[in-house]
Amino acid sequence: MTIFSGNTPAEMKIPEIPTAVHCGNNHLISIDTVLEGDQIVGLCFVFMVEDQPQSLSRKSSELPMKRLERIIRFGDSQQTVHTALGAPSKIYYKSDEKMLIQRGSNSENLKDEDKPDFFFNYFTMGVVG
């Protein structure tokens, strides 16, 4: 769902969102594919985060926002994803074979040690990985 201002769809513009609404979460601007030749090898995230102030006397609702661009390649380690995007909203742990749907149709070819035991949910950015 998108909330916009304007009288007609041609005049549509997305309203500014107050910084206080983010509550320390990343605010996604866009996600684009990263291509090498004609193969998709990752995703490029552009998002806003609260910038750390020099003085700690400011209230959290007054923190300035900073624009970041990060590239995540398919197969990156969990440390790389955490460093680029920050901590996920939630981590879901594998309870049984139902989680194999996350690996796609090639999951039967994976060895047990290659199968993921968890996946990340970046809810505020609309991403599960």
UniProtKB/TrEMBL annotation:
InterPro entries: PHAF1 (IPR005373), PHAF1/BROMI (IPR039156). GO terms for cellular component: trans-Golgi network. One of its GO terms (biological process) is Golgi to plasma membrane protein transport. Signal peptide: none annotated. Coiled coil: none annotated. Belongs to the PHAF1 family. This is Uncharacterized protein. It comes from Acrobeloides nanus. The lineage of its organism: Eukaryota, Metazoa, Ecdysozoa, Nematoda, Chromadorea.
